[in-house]
Amino acid sequence: MPYFRHDNIETYYETAGSGHPFILLHGLGNSMRQAKAMYRPVENIQYIFMDQRGHGQSTSDGDYSFDTMVNDVIALADHLGIKEFAIGGISMGAAVSLATYFRYPDRVRGLFLIRNAWAGQPMNDENRKLFEALATGLSLNSKEYLLNSDIYKSAEKEAPEKAASMLSLYDEPVSVKYWQKFSAVPKQKPFESLDDLKKINIPVTILANNYDDIHPFEFGILIHQAIPQSKFYPIACKALNKNQYHKDIGDHLEEFFKEVYLM
Description:
The chain is α/β, with parallel strands linked by helices. It has two domains: 193 residues, Alpha/Beta hydrolase fold, catalytic domain (Rossmann fold, 3-Layer(aba) Sandwich), CATH 3.40.50.1820; 59 residues. Helix content is 41%, strand content 17%. The chain has an eight-stranded mixed β-sheet, with helices on both faces. Strand 3, helix 1 and strand 4 form a beta-alpha-beta unit. Helix 6 crosses helix 7. The chain is globular and about 55 Å long. It starts with a strand and ends with a helix.
């Protein structure tokens, strides 16, 4: 099994294809399965997937700072002997990708950001409270705690798909075991402000869709406006058309690789 040990945790990873490296990261509460669902073979591109700490088959020591998650990415790249790479991800994965650029700009050749959940601030109050209620409920292994919370009842009424996704996390043993991540990650921010994004001078592609309360369409626009010469594309909503959602991402990835690696 492809594990490597770093900072006293075990990180699970997989690769697909060969050629120029592209690290693709999953979102909060997911695993590499989410990223692998978007995999489309591209000649001369090696996809690298990892279960981030406390997700999937990777362990955790309870530290979920963006600095630490970036160090995990760099440790994997070092383990694989990769000096420079393109990187991207969904939601938390997009945030870790941006944070990796700011901490190791000489190692990142391009950014592919899908459904951003941060735009220079921690998550908004409503989402932070919802994730906090989820974390407390998971720590107690009690669905009733979440179901009976006012913030969940509000989400169930205003954004039923978001509420349902929170409840489904109780079915993942790793979410119950490493519940602390749902409290820790939403409170942080991967970069200090939108002004910081003006410093980015590598190829960047940003994708967003409507009907997504945790990943507002406006966040994609704000990040696009802040990053010089970045590219922004609306994509299908996964909940409404999963096949088109994955096709949109795959199509834009191919264009991204051409820009980053001059293929």
